[in-house]
Every structure is written in C-alpha cells, then in structure tokens.
Amino acid sequence: MRTVRGFSGYACGVIVTALKGMYISKSQFSNSTDQNMENRRKLCCGEYFNEETHVSLTVVHGMDRTRYHCLQCDKSYTQRTKHNSHVKLVHENTLDTKNVQILRRNKEQKNKQAQIMMTVPNRNIDNLTLTLQKCINTELTNVYGCSILPDGRLVFSNYYPYMISVLKSDGSKDFEMDKIGDTFDVVYIGDDSIAITTRVSKNINIINIKKRKVEKTIQVNSNSDGVVYKDGHLIYCAKEKGLKMISLNDESTSNVTNNKLSDYAYVTTSGDKLFYTDPDNNSVTCCDYHGEILWTFCNENVLRRPFGISVDNDENAFVVGYLSNTVVVISPDGQRFRLLLSSEDGLLFPQVLHYDQSTNTLLVANQSEDAWLYEVKDARYSYF
Questions:
Q1: pLDDT, tens digit, for every residue of 286-314?
Q2: Domain of 193: which CATH number?
Q3: 280 φ, ψ (degrees, to nearest 5)
Q4: Residue limits of the C2H2-type domain (predicted)?
C-alpha cells in the first residue's frame, strides 16, 4: 500500500509510507562527516528538503530506504537508511506521475488561496451594505441590551420590568427570565453564560442560559451601565468612576480611565482599543487600555444621544443615536462617518445594537418592541 499525503494505492507489494517535511538526520548516517551530512541534506535542485517542494517516502522492500521526489524538477531519489559508511543518492523515476501532478495542483491551489486572503483589504465604510435578514418583535418595552449568541439565538435585556428574553434564530420566543434583580446591559461570556449589569443593585449577575438560573453575583462598588467581555474580563461603564475592568476569575478590579462617564454610556472593544459613548455630549470616544484618548467623534447632525456601540473586524464602530433615530458607522481613525439607518428604516428611539464578528450580522433594537437583523457586506467583495 502506498500513501502520499492522503493519496493511496497499491504498488507490487512494496509498502510506502508518506513522511512530512524533514531533514535527513545525522543519526541515520553515524559514520558520515558533518560536511557529507550537509551535502546529503541537499537534493537535485540544490535546495534543502522541505514539505513544500519535496515528497518523502519510506520504502520497505528488503532493505530500508527513503525515497524523495522533487516537485520542482520532477526527479526522484532513493536514499538507503542503513548505517552504512558509503551512501549515495540514486536517481529514480518510479514515483507515480499522477500523484505528483495532484500534489503540485494542490500546492498551486493553496498558494492562490493564500494570495486571495492576503490581498483582501480592510472594509471601507463607504462600501458597506446592509441587507435586512429579519424583522423581530421583542414584545419588550425598555430594551437596554442585546446580544447575538453563538448558536444564532438573540438575547435582550429589559430595564423595567426587569427581565431577559431569549429568542430563537427565527425570532420566535425561546424563554424569559425575571426575578433576577434589576437588568441593564447584557453580554455573552462563553460557557452558555451571559453577564447582566445593573444600575441599582451595584452588582453584575452571571446567568447560565442553559440551566436558566443565576450562577454568580459579583459585587461592584458602583452602578454599571454598558458592558463588554474580553479575555476573561468584563469592562463596564461605572458613571462617575469611569471605565472599570473586573476579572471573572478572582473578581479583582482595576481602573481603565477615571474620566467621568454619562448615564447610559455603553462600551465595546477591539484589539488594544476601547470605544465608548457619551450621550450627554453627543460623542463617541476611542481610547487605549491606559485611558489615553485617541480620538473623539461628535456630529449632532447625524448622532444625538448615542447609546449602544459595537465594532466589526476592521474596527469600524457602529453606533445608535437615540434622539436622532439613526445608526452611524465611524471609521477606525474617527475621521469619517456614514449614515446607515434612519427613521425611514423604522428606527424610533433605537437603544442598542450588537455586531457579531463571526457572522458579520448586525442586530439593532428600538427601545420598544421592534428589532432588526442585518447582514453586513463589503459591496466590492460580496462574493466572499
């Protein structure tokens, strides 16, 4: 049986096993000098053996040998692997030509795929297109948080009456939970769990949505509004105490920035940057994890009372304007913006949104009842 990188067949009772890229080791030629070893590591085309250009085959047929085939010059060589003092490379043309062609074709396809992946640029906000996937009736009156779960379900937090509502991917109701204390924003933290911030109780509740119960309550020394999850930590808006970060492991807290935040501020993150809204000043600010402000965006013509904020994979920031009835996307440098949705699309006091980076979908929710799920694409590369 012969196997070459996943291809198999029969060849006159000779057993052939494919090996991935490796050099001829010194242990195989114990009586050889270092210089001879260096020479033997080179093949016909003068290159060192590697899995991209050569196929290594171990042949068991009376005497152990190693056969190499160079994909660049279509030559095959057999190297005896006994501990002999005199070993030489012998030219052969016995490798199956069909398999060599398949290997070369697979290599070319991988190279083309890599080139395509490397040449796709970051998405420009001018080329983003939104396609409506679903209209949703949340049946809620004070939606202050929303999130798209990994399985496609949607979770909404309602401020009063205090509750969370989980909808199936088709928009139908899955289940609701109340009697869990006051609720503000919601974020998925992995392991079938979500975190809920509060404005009254000064704590953060961890809820297991599979077991449908509160598993943990974390006491914090401030009210908490908008929240985002990153690497085992929650970063939340603590009003006059600024942005704070808490570890879900040991519940230790640290300050990101001491700048006073507005009521109803929301926050999101991407890489080493944080983005938060300031409803009182109609602005959006980007800072690093040391609290240093990188840029601030303010344009009351398109964005008034910004609440919910979320970012895509290219750090384009999506923001809702509660009083302007808009959804605006801001470029990564904060210098440019584009109006994506308005009251003409049904927005009436939109409160929150969430961008799912794994599916490039955007969930937008009014304060009351209506929500929408959009697919976000780059018009230039819609075939990806």
A1: 999 999 999 999 999 999 999 999 999 99
A2: 2.120.10.30
A3: -65, -35
A4: 68-96
Higher pLDDT, 224 or 14: 224
Owner of token pair 């704590």 = 203
C-beta separation of 284 from 275 below 8 A? yes
Query: Which residue among 57, 90, 119 closes a domain?
Result: 119
Output the pTM of the full model.
Answer: 0.69
> Could you list the residue range(s) of the whole structural domain that residue 17 is in?
2-119
Q: Are residues 151 and 284 in the same domain?
A: yes
How far are the Cα atoms of 59, 74, 97, 102 from residue 77, in angstroms, in the given order?
Answer: 12, 10, 14, 19
d(CA 138, CA 54): 59
* Residue 263 backbone phi and psi in degrees, to 5: -60, 145
The average pLDDT across 352-376 equals: 97
Q: Which residue type sits at 115?
A: Q
Q: Which two tokens stand for residue 366?
A: 């009014």
Q: Return the C-alpha torsion angle 230, 126, 333, 330, nearest 10.
A: -60
Tokens 């949340």: give the residue: 138
Longest dimension (CA), the chain: 86
Distance between alpha carbon 317 and the CA centroid of its chain, in Å?
A: 16
Judged by average pLDDT, the poorest of 88-92, 308-312, 368-372 is 88-92
Identify whether 350 is preceded by a cis peptide bond (ω within 30 of 0). no
